[in-house]
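On clarity, I found the account of how folds are encoded harder to follow than it need be. Since the whole study asks how a given chain folds, the encoding of that fold should be made plain. For the editor and my fellow referees, an illustration may be useful. An entry of this sort, consisting of the sequence and the corresponding backbone structure tokens, reads as follows:

:::
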Amino acid sequence: MEQVSVVNLEGEIDQHLGDELLKNIVSLSKSETNGIILDFSHVEHIHYRVLSELVTVAKACDLQPGDIKLVNLNPYTREIVRASGTDSYFEMYNSVEDAVMSFSHTADGSTWIH
């Protein structure tokens, strides 16, 4: 069974908090985690540069598009993701459960192993 890590974010994610998030992503990428879910349920704002840096760090850690999923974005944070140009890298879901399930199976129902 694959291990998926959920990171609960909250408040306004500026460059300083973004740096902490990036360190967590690097740490998680070196662990037994097969996927990372960033839960935006309580996020009011995220600086667009944090999203761009997240893609850069993910690529440096050999994470592929789809290895990091974003969930529970409100319309404002979803627009920031789109405007930053990172929406093509991240899959977005309406719930943590849906994102977790997306790691487990492909469209044909077979197990998806990275």
